Amino acid sequence: MASFSLLVVVIFLTLAFEFSNGYPSGDATRRLRDALVFNRAVEAYLVQMHGVSWYRVWKRVAEAGPGAPNQLVIWETLMDGATLLLTGNCETVYGLCAIDLKRDYAVGWAHAMDTPYQWTKQVASHWGGTRNGTIVHWPKGIKGKGEVRAQFHHVIDVAPTILELAHLPQPTMVNGVLQRPIEGVSMAYSFNDAAAADRHETQYFEMFGNRGIYHKGWTAVTKHRTPWETGQVETIAFNDDVWELYDTSKDWSQARDLSKEQPEMLHKLQQLWLIEAVKYNVLPSRMTAAALPKAGKSRSS
Prior knowledge:
Layout: H1 2-22, H2 27-62, E1 73-76, E2 91-93, E3 96-98, H3 107-114, E4 134-137, H4 158-165, E5 173-174, E6 177-178, E7 202-207, E8 210-215, E9 218-222, E10 244-247, H5 263-279
Antiparallel strand pairs: 1-4, 2-3, 5-6, 7-8, 8-9, 9-10
Helix pairs in contact: 1-2
């Protein structure tokens, strides 16, 4: 795997060289392109090294002795596209373009890595900003090998899963601080039943005013602002945000907006987002009252 990682870096650097040689623009633009390709090559190597590290963890778990089959490992990938903000300065450093790295990598790479989903991290409304793969390894409790589960779950479901499998109650007091009820749902019911009905049926999303709601396969989403636009950026009022509607049970990549065809469903999900936002303290502390969705507002064609 390490050899493969090095191969990935070599391929990306080769592409950077080829692109810069054939790119028709000025020298600064070529150096910027070299830097961005090199930046993604480093990120690709980092991802591969994560895989190598987790392989070592699993190998040690497997070699742990009699208790190994009862070891539970939950590995959630975090590869929905991060973004990089560029200053526009381009100074040569080791033959590359020095850029101000305020995130992970360029916006274009973030979009590419999220394909076929829309948008990137910080755009919590769309799957490109939220959806990640998860691997659960528990030899003693999971009978199947290499199986896939389609039930909807969220990161808040990890703690309830561990507590259920460990036969532990949810703590009510920690260091003298009264604990709020855990908001997630255990995933354990799905481990040995691929056809089990979903138990996490509703989930709100919100970040920087980008909002979304999932409910029984449907999603209603609205992007309020673009995260890599910084400084004094003028945004429209929350009530003027355009909402989109998707049936992810049939359209898992959120490609076909149904807001015009099913305005009643859009209105229902907008109201559900409002209920969940109040319930989980998104409103009024994290957003103003202007964030209340305007019923029936949808994206124009």
